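User: quick one, fold this
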Amino acid sequence: MARPETIPTLTSELAVEILNKTLEELQTPQNVKKLEEAKDNVGNEMLKMMQFLFPIIMQVQMDVIKEFGFPNGRDGIIKFTQMLRSLEREDAEVARLNGLIKAYYLPSVSVNASSESPAEERTSSS
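Assistant:
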């Protein structure tokens, strides 16, 4: 019996909760081990990172968003990511947390020409 899939409304608060839960899951011993093994195999090569690290991160995130009522699998993660991108433009904390997740699978390079996310500018006054 197929049930219609309802997509939860992604508020900034829910996005922060999901992203924090994703970061927690990425730091579990099991996932740390998987990620370290994958990183050892890829070095700093972008293509290999996307090939080996990205799927691990996406699987963790799919498991997390499923707990929050998003559809399981590709459909759910695509819809979540689309909603998340909209929220990133409006909410600096959502952008910051999502940036922490992206840092797991994107090589660390300095990018100065990023006009898309001014929220990531580093400030030393806190």
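User: anything notable?
Assistant: Helices lie at 12-26, 29-42, 46-67, 74-90, 92-102.
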